[in-house]
Write a structure and sequence with these properties.
alpha/beta, 2 domains, five-stranded parallel sheet, 13 helices, signal-anchor, transferase, P-loop_NTPase, transmembrane, membrane
Length: 325
């Protein structure tokens, strides 16, 4: 394009002001070309786009996944649930390899949104390209209390399903007071290991190594980690970042049909003395610090991405001073 215009300049008798005007026109065209390239790249338009939501239990994940199932036909992507036998949160080594290869090379199922209750998996370890990891986490004690009552009273998602603790009316406070194993503070140890991964030490309650590894993975290997308490904002950031998959997600969420897809039928808030007992636990301290760390990062990402009404701020950079002309 530039050479064509230069040939035109040489072939014609034109004024100096016309040359300057033409140069400005060329600069504008180049700017638009570079900006368009940036926007296309930012939209993740390639067909091999893969998102993996390794969902933490009882963090509102069913509600969020419901959005993906409602959007997949309209936005032309596949949704696949990864179900690990016996509800295990880690895979055997052969399964890790098989899954990494499947997810990276299953072209017929791309673009894709995978989800399942599986701890973070390092795809590079198996020579496979990594998907875009996303996740949601929740205030640790709230998550544990919700799960405790869920096992006893179920939820409104499948109200007729009999849960394994159904009929047991012991409150969470009494469970803690009686020192029952189900209410041991070590049972809080879930969100840290989910982000830590498949190493044995990830699942050792109170491991500071696992805690640091989880933070490192969150920052380096996750596209986005939101919090259950701000799911609407999480949805908005995803729509702004990956519109290929999540275009229309915020509107759908605000309709309400998917906002609270799974609510525990009965939940009694723990007493102050119960909360105090947990706060003396190393496990609670590390889990809570990890939650606060994730929350700070999400707040920062949200502030740079969204306007107050949760709409996209749009592209906030451009190219200039492009040389040579």
């Amino acid at each position: 394009m530039l050479r064509t215009v230069q040939n035109m300049i040489q072939a014609c008798l034109i004024t100096k002001s016309m040359v300057i005007a033409l140069r400005k026109y060329i600069t504008v065209l180049l700017y638009k070309q570079f900006s368009l390239g940036a926007l296309l790249s930012n939209s993740f338009s390639s067909q091999n786009l893969t998102v993996f939501y390794n969902r933490v239990p009882k963090t509102g994940s069913t509600s969020f996944v419901g959005l993906a199932y409602d959007l997949c036909s309209k936005n032309k992507f596949k949704v696949l649930h990864v179900n690990v036998s016996k509800n295990a949160h880690t895979m055997s080594l052969p399964d890790q390899l098989r899954f990494a290869r499947n997810l990276s090379h299953w072209d017929l199922k791309q673009p894709a949104f995978y989800h399942g209750h599986i701890a973070y998996l390092d795809f590079a370890k198996f020579g496979s390209s990594s998907p875009l990891f996303i996740n949601l986490i929740r205030q640790p004690l709230d998550r544990m209390v919700s799960y405790y009552y869920f096992l006893r009273y179920g939820d409104d998602f499948r109200p007729h399903l009999i849960r394994r603790k159904q009929g047991n009316k012991t409150s969470f406070d009494d469970c803690v007071k009686e020192g029952q194993a189900e209410c041991d503070p070590n049972n809080l140890w879930l969100q840290v290991p989910f982000f830590c991964g498949h190493h044995a030490d990830c699942w050792a309650p109170g491991s500071t190594w696992a805690f640091e590894q989880a933070k490192n993975n969150l920052v380096k290997n996750y596209l986005l980690v939101g919090v259950t308490e701000q799911m609407e904002e999480f949805v908005a950031v995803l729509e702004a970042t990956i519109p290929n998959l999540f275009k229309g997600a915020l509107k759908l969420y605000r309709k309400g049909s998917k906002s609270h897809l799974r609510k525990t039928n009965m939940k009694i808030p723990p007493k102050a003395e119960t909360i105090a007992r947990f706060r003396n636990s190393t496990v609670w301290q590390l889990e809570n610090e990890f939650y606060e760390f994730a929350l700070r990062q999400f707040e920062y990402v949200k502030s740079r991405t969204l306007k107050p009404d949760l709409s996209d701020k749009g592209q906030q950079y451009f190219y200039e001073k492009i040389r040579p002309k």
